[in-house]
TrEMBL record:
Belongs to the class-II aminoacyl-tRNA synthetase family. The keyword Lyase does not apply. GO terms for cellular component: cytosol. This is Alanine--tRNA ligase. InterPro entries: aa-tRNA-synth_II/BPL/LPL, Ala-tRNA-lgiase_IIc, Ala-tRNA-ligase_IIc_anticod-bd, Ala-tRNA-synth_IIc_core, Ala-tRNA-synth_IIc_N, Ala-tRNA_ligase, Ala_tRNA_ligase_euk/bac, DHHA1_dom. Residues 193-224, 517-544 form a coiled coil. It comes from Clostridium carboxidivorans P7. Pfam families: DHHA1, tRNA-synt_2c, tRNA_SAD.
Length: 662
């Protein structure tokens, strides 16, 4: 450096610590205000217990960090910056639980963070509701993960204690992570509190095995195969130029013929293989857009192009089936793209650009494309968002796209440097690697993206845009499927036909359908209520018979019974009534409803003291009927697959109870 400098690590908070004469950044006024709010929510005074103090400091620090991260456009995910955000949120939530805070609370603390910082960071106040919403949803997701994962982890911990062990196997830790979404860091932290640890080497080995399985699966499904496939051995000096932006028809020379994994000099009628030409109007699958179909021909030769792809070196490959004649290397051929199919693809591809921008305008600027697929039938668009868009939001998105379609906006393409493209505000995919010169596609002033695909000349050619589905495909990733043009019109017509058919079935006009369905729903609700009452009476009629038919096992009354068409709720109610009237007892009941077996077991405190455990009883009983289950010492339930074995299963209760009672 021209001038020598010393990096003292004196960040804003450390300077504030000196200026305010405090011993810790957590004593600085703005941060202490957040810490006090955490203390208030936890109902624990700060400074009284070191363990609680650590948790409160962790929460204070992390809630500040995540508020700024979300404001900067980062969302919780399983990779990169999003994973750091998710870990911070979940660690803070976990420390909240250790303080006895069992409900979502972090999102409430963001108000204090924003109020203390918005003077210098105005964007925090502008995005207040958005920040709170993202944090709240992530907390709720984590609660679901904690509830399912903690139950399993606690079982693992109990088994470790029983066996006098302190290391959780990598296999079990991986099961928690892979099956229940339980973060390995959280598993480590919980075990550490109990003087235990994870076999991280074993966990990493399981993780690597999974990656290798996924890689092997990808290789099996990738027909392009490994690097040494014949498709990737085309000489680099062979040029294949795409000219399909401007034309769908061209004449060119055949440079390469491939058949049966070999380079050949000719192909004849009936052959399937690959043709490589100097020039081609056929678009090779790339950027989510599928390859073109069409015909390659001469006066005496005709081949159907069934797909078009690129090899690893970027050579354009026409996958063909020879319909007639013979073709040889260096022959001159005519290439014709299926125009109707290309037009459908172009409509769908331009529509994805409009959809991308519409989502950003309706849901927020944080939205970015996470994947897409465009063919001649429909379009599929994946994007990041922290919750499912509401019906109203999707209607707004669809309406916004159609508004831009009817404006008949010009679609323009320009080649420019990557830096120029970014300066113009063109949207690029985060993970894509771009060349120094890129192609920018603009739809009027509405949308501007880096894209190498084929598009309509104006938005009016799309005709109509219709969303047909929206769903989640991964944590934080949503997927929209839509149709355009004639396909969209056909979709709307099919919906109209369906509505008319429903009206005919209900014998009412289209306007009266909802009212008619509401009336039928009320009628069904009443009938369900009547059926439930009848089932309850049916179960009740068996109560006296079961109470009078008990067996005594080592001083404990055993009440058993097999019922028919009594559902789980009624079965539990009946078992509870019998338990309350039976004194020191065990109740085990079975029922078959629509071919499905259900078991329930209940017992009293006195019986538990003698060794009775309903979870153990029900596990053995259900196994006989081809099922499984478990539960607490005082109550357990299970299912089964073999209705014909229910009597045998219930009959085994005496011997099971004899083994348990001390």
């Amino acid at each position: 450096l021209k001038n020598p400098n010393i990096d003292t690590g004196m960040g804003l908070e450390r300077i504030a610590t000196i200026m305010q004469g405090t011993n810790s950044i957590f004593e600085v006024d703005t941060i202490r205000a957040i810490l006090d709010e955490v203390s208030k929510v936890a109902k624990i005074e700060y400074g009284k217990d070191e363990k609680s103090d650590i948790s409160m400091r962790v929460i204070t620090d992390h809630v500040r960090s995540v508020s700024f991260m979300i404001s900067d456009g980062i969302l919780p995910s399983n990779e990169g910056r999003g994973y750091v955000l998710r870990r911070l949120l979940r660690r803070a939530a976990k420390h909240g639980k250790s303080l006895g805070i069992n409900n979502a609370f972090l999102y409430k603390l963001t108000d204090m963070v924003i109020d203390n910082s918005c003077g210098n960071y105005a964007e925090l106040a502008e995005k207040r509701d958005y920040i709170k919403k993202v944090i709240k949803l992530e907390e709720e997701r984590f609660d679901e993960t904690i509830d399912s994962g903690m139950q399993i982890l606690n079982e693992f911990i109990e088994n470790l204690k029983i066996n006098n062990e302190t290391i959780l196997s990598g296999e079990k830790a991986f099961k928690l992570y892979d099956t229940y979404g339980f973060p390995i860091e959280l598993t480590e932290e919980i075990l550490e509190e109990k003087d235990m640890k994870v076999d991280l080497e074993g966990f990493n080995k399981e993780m690597q095995n999974q990656r290798e399985r996924a890689r092997a699966a990808r290789e099996e499904t990738n027909y392009m195969g490994a690097e040494d496939t014949i498709l990737n051995k085309i000489p680099l000096e062979i040029e294949t130029k795409f000219n399909g932006y401007d034309t769908l028809h061209t004449t060119s020379k055949v440079k390469i013929l491939i058949k049966n994994e070999e380079f050949v000099s000719t192909m004849v009628e009936g052959d399937k293989g690959v043709i490589v030409t100097e020039n081609t109007p056929f678009y090779a699958e790339m950027g989510g857009q599928i390859g073109d179909h069409g015909i390659i021909s001469t006066d005496s030769f005709k081949a159907e192009v069934v797909d078009c792809k690129k090899n690893v070196a970027g050579k354009i490959l026409h996958f063909v089936k020879v319909l007639s004649g013979t073709i040889g290397v260096d022959h001159q051929v005519t290439l014709n793209v299926n125009e109707a199919r290309r037009n459908n693809i172009r409509r769908n591809h331009t529509a994805t650009h409009l959809l991308n921008e519409a989502l950003r305008k309706v849901l927020g600027e944080h939205v970015h494309q996470s994947g897409s697929y465009v063919d001649d039938e429909r379009l599929r668009f994946d994007f990041n968002h922290f919750e499912a868009p509401s019906h109203e939001e999707l209607k707004k998105v669809e309406a916004l796209v159609n508004d831009e379609i009817v404006k008949v906006l010009n679609v323009q393409t320009q080649s420019m440097s990557l830096e120029e493209a970014k300066e113009t505000g063109a949207i690029a995919l985060f993970d894509n690697k771009y060349k120094d010169e890129v192609r920018v596609v603009s739809v009027g002033d509405f949308s501007k993206e880096l894209c190498g695909g084929t598009h309509v000349s104006n938005s009016g050619e799309i005709g109509l845009f219709k969303i047909i589905s929206e769903a989640g495909v991964a944590a934080g990733i949503r997927r929209i499927e839509a149709v355009t043009g004639p396909k969209a019109i056909a979709y709307v017509e099919a919906k109209n036909d369906l509505i008319k058919e429903i009206g005919n079935k209900l014998r009412c006009s289209e306007k009266e359908i909802i009212h008619k369905l509401d009336l039928q729903a009320l009628e069904l609700k009443e009938k369900d209520k009547e059926i439930a009452e009848l089932k309850s009476k049916l179960a009740g009629s068996a109560e006296d018979e079961i109470l009078n038919g008990f067996q005594e096992v080592k001083g404990i009354k055993l009440f058993t019974g097999v019922l028919k068409d009594v559902d789980g709720n009624a079965l539990r109610d009946l078992a509870d009534k019998i338990r309350n009237k039976g004194g020191e007892c065990v109740v085990v009941l079975g029922s078959v409803v629509e071919g499905k077996v259900q078991f329930v077991s209940m017992t009293t405190k006195e019986a538990i003291a003698k060794g009775v455990h309903c979870g153990k009883i029900i596990k053995e009983v259900a196994a006989i009927a081809g099922g499984g289950g478990g539960g607490r010492p005082d109550m357990a339930q299970a299912g089964g697959k073999l209705p014909e074995k229910v009597e045998d299963a219930i009959g085994s209760c005496v011997s099971i109870l004899e083994k348990l009672v001390k």
